[in-house]
Amino acid sequence: MSADDFRSNGYAVIDWIAEYLENPAAWPVLPALKPGDLRAQLPTAPPANPEEFAAIFADFEKLVVPATTHWNHPGFMAYFANSSTAAGILGEALAATLNVNAMLWRTGPAATELEQVTLDWLRQLLGLPDPLFGTINDTASSSTLYALAAARELHPELRIREEGMSARAELPRLTVYCSEEAHSSVAKAVMTLGLGLSNLRRIGTDAGMRMETRLLDEAIRRDRADGAFPLAVVATVGTTSTTAVDPVPAIASICEREKIWLHVDAAYAGSAAILPELRHILDGCERADSIVVNPHKWLFTPVDCSALFTRRPDLLRRAFQHTPDYLVVGDGDEAVNLMDYGVSLGRRFRALKLWFVLRHFGSDAIASLIRAHIALAGCLCRWIDGEPDWERMADAPFSTVVFRHRPPGMDAGALDAHNAAILERVNGKREVFLSHTRVRGAYALRIAIGNIQTDETHVRRAWELLRNEGSRTVY
Ligand SMILES: Cc1ncc(COP(=O)(O)O)c(C=O)c1O
What is the DSSP letter of 108? Predict the structure, then answer.
């Protein structure tokens, strides 16, 4: 593509993005699509000859966009809603342009150092202690996997790096602890690391869905008595289902006493610690060995961007450093080589978009945006609490509200089916996208406010649709 063609095609793309960001609600939040519909419209083999950019772009508009679930839509309130903001998009474009592969400091000095600087800014914004070493991964799932891999290296006498874990009769059973409400990424990490799901202890929770430290303590004692080797505890600040906050200070005390690695999963809610009034949600995290916060969830940064902080970069490196000859270079001890802190050799320049976002907004504006989301969730809570046939199923400390319609005379099974039907019908209108969860086994509706364009009109509309369908759906 010539520079002139690049300019004209690029301007067209930027124009499209600008229009899209101005009004993402021009598209339905959910596409009207069945699995396989898009594939059926696409050629099964790649083109042998070049195609005009205009034709490719036209297919993007005609085929791809209508087959997209629009996370940028202000009516997107499912899972943990997020935002791809203009500053982040431009940062991504420039990262793709520079196309550095920051495996070594030498192959990406700017990418490496900007990652350290940007994560140190984020650390300060979250009120986390100095020093704390940070790296950016694709997702919280990878960050948690890496944290648990580092936890194994806290005990070099286990010789896992050298000898692995199979066919070793002398190796004790290594156990990991998290609450019943912890994200499935903890289980996946345990599976991936060969620790085995049967060695993941899912600790019971209190009425607020927070890990019961008494039960954690008991489980660790029981495991030790049985000859097991408690390896790590994963506490959650902002659980996926109801955004509960585990009692990290008490968990940290247990981990310190027992010499167990403490990893904190604050993938969603961690960003809220930017608000001075919510700084306390990360209390105790200064004593954690590692903590994950996802700027791609609630910090207005495009997917993917997950920040893993650790007090023990030496152990993260011990878990992952393995350098072939061709990557041995003489840049000295000062040089951080990002390839040493995870599975992948190559690293994208992810810090660029986060740096753009943090500078473009500034921390005061970011705090105001998050505060506004929390206030919107507060409005929704009041509307729900004001209706006798609706009930909240959990506290809403952040921007996520979990609730259900509870008309009189329905048993538990009927209530589950009734609420599932409400959700199906509301989502079927493709104006808003909501998701569900289960609270102590009961089906619950869930609204998560996190998109930069979501305002009261969208939340009000979602509530109106739910109430309409609630009164209409009959069993
Ligand atoms: C608390 C928590 N941890 C981890 C994850 C996994 O995030 P990722 O998609 O970045 O792996 C999620 C996803 O929503 C989450 O809610």
Answer: -
Q: In testing the pocket of ligand 1, which one of 76, 181, 185 has its CB within 8 Å of the most ligand atoms?
A: 185
Domains and CATH numbers, the chain: 1-30+69-90+354-475 (3.90.1150.170), 101-348 (3.40.640.10)
Cα 28 to ligand 1 centroid, rounded to whole Å: 25
Q: Is the pLDDT of residue 68 over 90?
A: yes
Name the closest-CA residue to atom 9, ligand 1: 139
Measured from the CB, is residue 78 less than 6 Å from ligand 1? no
pLDDT of amino acid 201: 98
**Cα–Cα distance measured from residue 92 to residue 351, given in angstroms and rounded to the nearest whole number:** 9
pTM, whole model, 2 decimals? 0.97
Our mutation pick for probing the ligand 1 site, out of 137, 265, 282, counting the most ligand atoms within 8 A of Cβ, is 265
Smallest CA-to-CA distance from 352 within 11, 122, 143, 96 is with 96
Q: Is pLDDT of 475 > 80?
A: no
Question: 136 - beta bridge partners?
Answer: 307
- Distance (Å, whole) CA 174 – CA 472: 52
Cα(100)–Cα(94) distance, integer angstroms: 10
How buried is residue 34: exposed, middle or buried, by Cβ count under 10 Å (0-12/13-18/19+)? exposed
Q: Per residue in 2-15, pLDDT tens?
A: 999 999 999 999 99
pLDDT digits 0-9 by tens, 409-430? 999 999 999 999 999 999 999 9
